[in-house]
Amino acid sequence: MFYARLDRKEDAIRAAQRQTELGADDVRVGPIAEEFLAWVYTAVGDPEAAIEIFDRLLTIPYHWAITVEALRLDPRADPIRDDPRFQAMLEKHGQETGESG
Fold it and tell me: Of the residues 38, 39, 54, 98, which has the fewest C-beta atoms closer than 10 A?
């Protein structure tokens, strides 16, 4: 996220992708690393990549799993909050889990 805040998009993505690769075989760390990658994509202005990851993560159980409600409220989602794809994803998963919105 430091790279993202320094406007070093490629470095931010590369570092987060590397973290994801290192945790890929760990059922506890892997999804958390992927969630972090989604937040990096959100911060650097790649909503499509972020939404794709969040959409998949909302379908799998993991320790401290992201939820529809967390995505609705988390200020880190502000850059993609008004994206119709993000709203559709929240609606889809909110219906699946019974969350209202």
Answer: 98
